[in-house]
Amino acid sequence: MIRVVVSGIGGKMGRMVSETVLKQHDMKLVGGVDPAIAGKTLGELFKIDDSTPVSATIEDLLVKTQFDVLIDFTRGNVAPHTIEKTLEYRRNVVVGTTGIDGKELDRLGKMANELKVGFFLAPNFSLGAVLMMEFAKKAARYLDHAEIIELHHNQKADAPSGTALRTAYLMSENLKVFNKDTVQGEEKIKCALGGEVNGIRIHSVRLPGFVAHQEVLFGGVGEILTIRHDSLSRESFMPGVLLAIRKVQGLNGFVIGLENLL
Ligand SMILES: NC(=O)C1=CN([C@@H]2O[C@H](COP(=O)(O)OP(=O)(O)OC[C@H]3O[C@@H](n4cnc5c(N)ncnc54)[C@H](OP(=O)(O)O)[C@@H]3O)[C@@H](O)[C@H]2O)C=CC1
Ligand SMILES: O=C(O)C1=N[C@H](C(=O)O)C[C@H](O)C1
């Protein structure tokens, strides 16, 4: 039985991940962290018979709870502390949180490698999104003009999305600089042309109604290639999260990207 705890257990992803874990025969939800709902019980949150209270801090959870895997869906400025403390306790970590500072992530990855503790992070747990990124990476070998448009719900904390940044990073593995000969017109409104990663312009849309969507557009001579993915519900992330929970204990270090677990 894999004993699972969830950081951000009261959030949109934390709740759905917890409900999904509760339905698995080989997993047991044994605790969670979320300051705003600390003290509420798992029973109250998920309508089950369980009086375990939600912790206010990761430190409180670590001293009170025996577990095998911590799942983090919080905020980019919160997750690093949780990951560090959990690794110090030699417990496996699965992270979906985006917006984590790159240098922080490198440092935590090295820590996991040195301690030989499983630390898995996926900017996107949906299978379709992973394929979209793989296809975009492949297209980048042949087409050197590209832009990314990502569209999300308006509660999202970070922009651009972790998926957009990961896509740009993977594309850049096949081509160092995009849009070299683009003549950029004057931006009459600041940021109208988007932000840039290795020349790839990224545009973020935030509107109620969206869940998580992305288009990678490649421009060629007289042609456009559009690679699009739509997460229509957060259920799309659940199979990937379950796969990571089942595999993280065998990792002995840091791994990024769901494609590396498939
Ligand atoms: N990798 C993937 O496939 C996916 C990644 N994500 C990412 O997951 C993250 C969470 O997304 P989402 O669930 O929509 O966001 P939510 O805002 O709904 O959830 C985040 C939760 O974390 C809580 N929180 C704040 N501080 C702490 C803390 N110190 N310890 C524990 N919990 C804390 C928040 O509480 P409060 O609201 O009171 O601050 C909130 O309940 C984001 O970074 C998002 O980009 C989302 C979907 C898929
Ligand atoms: O905040 C979200 O909702 C999502 N965040 C991740 C990201 O930043 O890429 C994954 C997915 O896009 C949903």
From TrEMBL:
Dihydrodipicolinate reductase N-terminal domain span: 2-125
One of the GO BP terms on file: diaminopimelate biosynthetic process
Domain Dihydrodipicolinate reductase C-terminal: 128-262
Annotated NADP(+) binding sites: K47
Reaction(s) this enzyme catalyzes, per UniProt: (S)-2,3,4,5-tetrahydrodipicolinate + NAD(+) + H2O = (2S,4S)-4-hydroxy-2,3,4,5-tetrahydrodipicolinate + NADH + H(+); (S)-2,3,4,5-tetrahydrodipicolinate + NADP(+) + H2O = (2S,4S)-4-hydroxy-2,3,4,5-tetrahydrodipicolinate + NADPH + H(+)
Molecular-function GO terms, alphabetical: 4-hydroxy-tetrahydrodipicolinate reductase; NAD binding; NADP binding; oxidoreductase activity, acting on CH or CH2 groups, NAD or NADP as acceptor
Biological or metabolic pathway of the protein: Amino-acid biosynthesis; L-lysine biosynthesis via DAP pathway; (S)-tetrahydrodipicolinate from L-aspartate: step 4/4
PROSITE patterns named in the record: DAPB
Gene Ontology cellular component terms for the protein in this record: cytosol
Active-site residues per Swiss-Prot or TrEMBL entry: H152, K156
Main localisation: cytoplasm
Name of this protein: 4-hydroxy-tetrahydrodipicolinate reductase
Organismal lineage: Bacteria, Pseudomonadati, Thermodesulfobiota, Thermodesulfobiia, Thermodesulfobiales
